[in-house]
Every structure is written in structure tokens, then in C-alpha cells.
Amino acid sequence: MMEHILTYIIFFPLFMAVVLGVFRAPLKFLKIGAMFSSITTLLLVLWLTYNFEPHGAMQFIQNLPWIQNSGITYFVGVDYLSLVILVLISLLMPPLYIYMVHENRKGYWYNMMLLQTGVTGAVLSLDLVLFYLFWETMLLPIFIMIGKYGNGKYQFNSMKIVLMTILGSMSMLFSILYLGYIYFETSGIWSFALNDLAGLALDAKTSIWLTAGFLLAFAIKIPLVGFHTWMAPAYGSAPTPTVVIMSAIMAKLGIYGVWRFGYGLFEATLSYYAPTIIVLALLGLLYYAVRAVTEDNLRKMFAYSSGSHLSLIALGVFLTNIYAWSGSLYFIATHALASAGMFIMIGLSYKRFKTVRISELGGIASVAPKFAFFFAFFALSIAGLPGTGGFVAELLIIIGAFKTNFWIGVFTATTMLSAMIYIFWMLQRTLFGTSTKLCECSDLNAREILMLLPLVLLLLVTGIAPSLFTPFFETQLNASLQDVLTAIGGLQ
Questions:
Q1: The predicted structure's pLDDT at residue 490
Q2: What's 247's DSSP letter?
């Protein structure tokens, strides 16, 4: 089982979807099968985490020939970086299926299982062509979920996200194929394995162009300011489960791509782009925060909030010191938990009040106090409430920013202040304001509290006791950072 566990984790949701589809399973069995696949995958991931060696490098590797004449292999593995995102994916799927329990459109369930396979495969792939295939696979269910089950200008918005993502994907594919060609010219054989391509000696000009191909794809996925025009419309039109995956997981894969393939293939060349990315990230911190303050739609407001915090994570990745890197990795996990909880709360809000407009909400605390508590907790967690994991992560990134440059540190520190402004302004109007729209409505029920409670507990534990988690990545994170600093020093 050990040598095949990653394959089981990747393909079990897809296998379940295919079996249920072939036998035309009734809706009831489709729901049970989807939940069973998510719980089974979660148990496999927990078993893998228990057996993961914190001080080891890539583990549970499986490398099988696939398209041998082209050097494409089924090459998967997990290390500290991919483990963090893998655990997040497996933790978030069961709550999402609980949220969807009354959803009677079969396409929802099939697409969510396909989406889980796509994002899991992308984060575990060590062959670049395999990574690209999973990268594109996770786009298909997003396109269908928005284009078929969305709201507003859902068809236009689904096409917009697909076209922008394909633009980035094509640039990345060109870079991947050209790297494979260079390896063939150098060694006489084809290979797209990350460990093979990492050893290529590229001239400066070629490296700069190939790095740009990857960075365009990752900048759109994050998204960095200037590459973000798809974000708010897509978040506004997508069904709640899709928004959760987009914010909590898919956006983080843009960061993951920079870390895994940017630093894995072009450590020295990234220093050429670092000033530009740092400027874009700093602009994003402020621009997205301003847009969040002025936005009346809760989904779009938290889309911009996510953009601001993802810019902060990207900033930390390009500030090559251990504080910024530790904070960015920790923030990938804690922001995913907080944003997932927040977007689920927005979905529950729409089910109860039939609106997500801040101006039409008000006085929620008086009619649904339990709802108001969870709503406020997740919102404040996004803002970096002390005692939650987001506070620890943001503080580490800010320290890393000051360690790099005083003024970068000053601009970075405004993230917490700006987030507090738009979060408290929103809470004041939604929880304690007045509105004629709200009537007596049901508070959170036991099923919904069960769905939300694990996210709350994880945010509290990561904030109160971060030392329970940091040993899983501290040693290897330091080793990776030293490799990057050595490569940059070699360039200089």
C-alpha cells in the first residue's frame, strides 16, 4: 500500500465518480458515494501524514513509464510543501459535501469529485507534462460549475476565467516542451521529470523567457494585480462549493507552482523577476484592500480580500528569508481554512436571507446568534485575529519583510490594518445594522455546526499552538531556502 498510496489518493474520487456514472447511480447513492470517497481519501492522507518523515525530502515516490518514446512518466511524490496542500484538500472536501447535502443536481457531485482528482494530481506531480495535464483537468469542472450552475453573467464569466487560464497554461506548456527539448539535445533522451530538468544548464536569456512562461500561468492563477480581472466576476457567479475550492485551493496552487517549479528549475533567474513581483504584490495588498472596502457584494468583497492576502503570500515567497517563507507556507494553510469557512457562511447567508449584498443585510446577530458567531469568527480570522493561525502567519511574513527592507515591511504591515478596516465595517453593517430584508429565520442547525466546527478548531489550534505544526516543514524549508540562496549567490 505504501508505494501506491499517492495513486489511491489522487484517483479514488475519480474512480468513484466513474463507477457511479457507469451504473447510473440514483442521487441518494451518488451523495453517499461522494462522501465515502472524501472520507476514504481523508483517512489515507492522515495515514500518510502519520508516516511522513518530517526531516526527509521527497517521499512515497512512484515513478512509472507512461509515454516512453516522449519521456513522459507517471511520476508523483510528496514533500513538506505538497503535504500542506494535500492535507487541506482532503480536510475541506467532507465539509463541502455536507454543505451540498440538499443539492439535487447530479452534475454538482460528479464535477466536485473530478475537481478533487485534478487539484490533488497537480500538487503531487513531479513530471511537468503530468502536472500540466492535472492543471488543465481541474479547470474543466470549474468551467462547467460556473457555466451551468452559476448565477448572474455566469456564461460570460466562465468563458473569461477559462480563456485567461488557458493563456497562462499555453505559455507554461511552451516552456515545459522547450525544457524537454533542451534536455533531449543535451542528453540524447527525452525527459520531463523535474529532477532531470532541474540539472539543465540554461543560458541567461533562455532561462528568463522560460521562467516568464511559468510565471504568467501562476500570476493568473494567484492572481497578482493586473492578472486579476477574472477573479471577482468568477467568485460572484460561481456556486459556493466552487468558490471555496477556487479561493482555498486553486489560488494556492499558483503559489505552489512558483515554489515547486520556479525555485525548482529557475532559482537564480527568479531573482531577475523578484523586484517586479514584489512591486505587484505590494500594489495588490493595497489595491485589493481598497476594492474590498468599496464592494457591496459579500462574495466579491472576500474575493478582493483573498487577492490581498494571496499577494501577501506571494510577497513572502519572493522575500528569500526563513521568516517570510515560514509565514507564507503557514498562511497557505490558515488562509485556506478561514476563506473556506467564510465562503461557506456566505452561501448559508444566501440560503437564509436570499441576498449577499451588505446594504441589504443587517441585524443578523439578533435573529441568528449562532450564525453571527461563526460568521464573525471566520471574518476576523481572515483579518488576522490574534489567537488564530492567520495572525501567526501574517506576523512572520511582516517580520520577514522588515528583515529584507524597512519600507517593504511598512507597506506589508498595512495588510493587517486595512483588513481590520473592511472586516469591521462589514461586520458592523451585517451583524448589528438594521434592514427590512431580514425576518425571523432559522439559526444554524446541528449539521451546519458539525460542518463548520472542525475549521474553527483548526484555526484556533494553528493560532495558539503553531509549534505542533512547524516541525513538519521547518528542517526541509531551511534546506530549500539555503539551496535557493546558494543559487542566487552563484549568479551574482
A1: 44
A2: I
